[in-house]
Amino acid sequence: MPISKCPPKSQPPWKEWDQKAQKNGLRHQVHAVNGDRYVGEWKDNMKHGKGTQIWKKKGTIYEGDWKFGKRDGYGTLSRPDKEKGKYRKVYSGWWKGDKKSGYGIQFYGPNEYYEENGNRYEGYWQGGLKNGPGRFFHLDHGQLFEGFWVDNIAKCGTMTDFGRDEAPEPTQFPIPQVEVVDPDGVLEEALAMVKKKDEPSEAGTKRSRRTRRPIPETLRASGENQVRIIQLLKPVEE
Prior knowledge:
Layout: H1 13-21, E1 25-31, E2 37-43, E3 46-54, E4 61-67, E5 70-81, E6 86-96, E7 99-108, E8 119-126, E9 129-138, E10 143-150, E11 153-161, E12 178-180, H2 183-197, E13 219-221
Antiparallel strand pairs: 1-2, 2-3, 3-4, 4-5, 5-6, 6-7, 7-8, 8-9, 9-10, 10-11, 12-13
Protein name: MORN repeat-containing protein 3
Organism: Pipistrellus kuhlii (Kuhl's pipistrelle)
Subcellular location: Cytoplasmic vesicle, Secretory vesicle, Acrosome
């Protein structure tokens, strides 16, 4: 008895189109409706893996790691410099959930005199804000601040002259030296005070950050070109 075979049913065209539209793996350039562009890896229709995003409105470029549609991992953010006709690095470091998190370097303002585009911050981030130990190079004025940040505010640390003779806009006078009998111990105490203010109190509320303790009486001034700032009474201007 002859056996008849039915030809396989062809799937509707829309299913084939939908399969082709699903973005997984490495893709060439993908354009968004607003003109943004992305080249890189995808997973379940989301940017995932290595990729480069270009935002049309400001021309900003991000090159680095992605995780489920957000910048996550290590990456570099750059913006166009209209005067020089090329891109200027703004941030290079770690990201989490589309925000700066972990160790990274933030660059401030273009300056032809310096190879790394002027002032910069090197240190730790959390939630897109400076949080933890770090260094801020005020290369335009020839100064360096090394200390501890909480939510973008420098809480304690040391300020020194750094490349002041080569700075394009140096401060009017060198920083006089302030000597401390036990500088490391005093700085550690100030840092512990800053961290303690962020800890929950016995009542379950955070300690007030406005509480100020007097600077130890072990400070005495001299005429050298360096200073140690033990506890800041106002944020460092950037």
